[in-house]
Design a protein that fits this description.
The chain is an all-alpha fold and 503 residues long. It contains 19 helices and two strands. A two-stranded antiparallel ribbon has the order 1-2. The relative contact order is 0.21.
Length: 503
């Protein structure tokens, strides 16, 4: 039984599957398209909201260092993703990488994890986008009925029509084709980055040096509680995270990590890239470097414009401009946030549909969903299914508590990919690698340790929810996936080793 649970699908077979006419995706993306996708999904609510939260409650002006630390953790993972994406240019990202190195059951676990992570991420962002649009409509004197805003407290019923409509519209865009999606994303990302640059340049004129004093506020330890809401590291080791001080910088890094989520989605588009061996590593690393620089610049400016203790938690950038007597910029920031969240939602939905598509093509989920559109060559069945489900979830559910599941799911994927790099280096040293992670195994080991540390700083409640989702995944795998896998005896023969070349 253990041999079937850890049967691997070799790289050659994975690439060969991408050439089947009914299951082949259209190759249309370039390195620039992938970089735009990465920037489009990373720059979202994090840059507009988390800066104030982390600065006011945890790190003070040193929150800029927290962004550097979180970016470094992502960079370690990005180096591992880049090697895999250039070696195995197949849809599915961490799921596909795990299938080629760790085996079927670990691949199923990571795929199941990614489905949850990207679904919740899409729904959360859609609800956040709806909130910005509601705010803008209210400013213009247009008011939707509360029952259609997901916030009717009188009847207890509410459906967020704007969030659901956004998901369905983006689903239609993704079905039409990746190149159309890339063009839409390019325009929106251009607007979003322009707004961020305006914030940085304009805000720099209102910076006061006194607001940086102290740059690292005095440490204020959080009392050890033991409640379920406490971080897991506190429950296990008795160590309580700090407000401020040097340790507060690391605690804030766990908070602002959410702002970086999404660069790994670039790897899910490897199969639709014209030259994946070259362009996917460029897209992953390029987008991460650009966004880290923007995050650090914004955090330095906003904490210089207004004292960290006075920053708003809900809208720190907009309120900082209001505090300096320039409310016009606040409206511009709200517009930029609303526009920016559109691309975040679309790219998260793109990533989830590709992971689902890859799992169904391997037989772990019904093969019906791995059929591509005869004209657009997109996985339209899986995209439509997931779009409808997420639209319903976004419409009916308040997901603020579940947002932390996105963090833990992403960090778990980072750790698995880093381990997979080490394993595949040993099991398949012969594979051509257009990009090689430097200092193996040091960099992958550091990536695993950094990811686990940030995971331990998440609430124990998040770990419990994550465990429940994983348990459901085990049940689905043993009832369906294991017997329907293409590597099962009646499907493809086990592919633990590559075929022997002819003599």
């Amino acid at each position: 039984m253990s041999s079937t649970l850890f049967r691997t699908k070799n790289v050659e077979q994975s690439i060969q599957d991408t050439e089947e006419p009914e299951h082949a995706l259209k190759k249309s993306l370039s390195a620039l398209d992938l970089t735009v996708f990465g920037v489009g999904v990373i720059i979202g609510t994090g840059i507009f909201v988390l800066t104030g939260t982390a600065a006011k409650n945890t790190a003070g002006p040193a929150v800029s260092l927290s962004f550097v630390i979180a970016g470094a953790v992502c960079a370690l993972a990005a180096l591992c993703y880049a090697e895999f994406a250039s070696t195995v240019p197949v849809a599915g990202s961490a799921y596909t990488f795990s299938y080629a190195s760790l085996g079927e059951l670990p691949a199923w676990i990571i795929g199941w994890d990614l489905v949850l992570e990207l679904a919740l991420g899409t729904a959360v962002v859609a609800v956040g986008w709806s909130g910005y649009i509601h705010s803008l409509l209210d400013n213009w004197g247009w008011h939707l009925p509360e029952a259609l805003g997901g916030r009717d407290g009188a009847t207890g019923f509410g459906f967020d029509i704007l969030a659901a409509a956004l998901v369905l519209l983006l689903t239609a865009v993704l079905v039409v084709g990746m190149k159309v999606s890339a063009r839409v994303t390019s325009v929106v990302v251009g607007i979003k980055v322009a707004v961020v640059l305006i914030v940085i340049v304009a805000g720099a004129f209102f910076v006061k040096g006194a607001n940086y004093d102290p740059f690292i506020p005095a440490e204020q330890p959080v009392a050890a509680g033991g409640s379920l809401k406490a971080p897991l590291v506190q429950l296990i080791f008795g160590w309580a995270p700090s407000h401020f001080g040097v340790m507060g910088i690391f605690t804030a890094a766990s908070v602002v990590f959410f702002a970086f989520i999404g660069f790994d989605v670039v790897a899910t588009a490897a199969e639709e890239t014209r030259n994946p061996q070259r362009d996917v590593p460029r897209g992953i690393l390029g987008s991460l470097i650009i966004c880290t620089a923007l995050y650090v610049a914004v955090s330095i400016v906003v904490t210089g414009m207004q004292k960290y203790s006075a920053l708003s938690v809900e809208a720190p950038l907009a309120d900082a401009f209001k505090a300096t007597g320039h409310p016009w910029f606040a409206g511009l920031i709200s517009f930029g946030a609303a526009v920016g969240l559109t691309t975040v939602c679309m790219i998260l939905l793109l990533g989830q549909s590709r992971v689902f598509f890859a799992m169904s093509r391997d037989g772990l989920l019904p093969r019906f969903f791995s059929q591509t559109h005869p004209k657009y060559r997109t996985p339209y069945r899986s995209t439509i299914l997931l779009g409808v489900v997420i639209a319903v979830v976004a419409g009916f559910t308040s997901l603020s508590e579940l947002a932390e599941l996105v963090n833990i799911g992403t960090l778990f994927a980072f750790a698995i990919v880093a381990l997979s790099v080490i394993i595949l280096r040993r099991s398949r040293p012969d594979l051509p690698r257009a990009f090689r992670t430097p200092l193996v195994p040091l960099v992958p080991v550091l990536s695993v340790l950094a990811s686990l540390w940030l995971m331990l700083n998440l609430p124990a409640e998040t770990w419990l929810r994550f465990a429940v989702w994983m348990l459901i995944g085990f049940i689905v795998y043993f009832l369906y996936g294991r017997s329907h896998s293409r590597l099962a005896p009646r499907g493809h023969p086990p592919a633990g080793k590559p075929p022997r070349p002819p003599a």
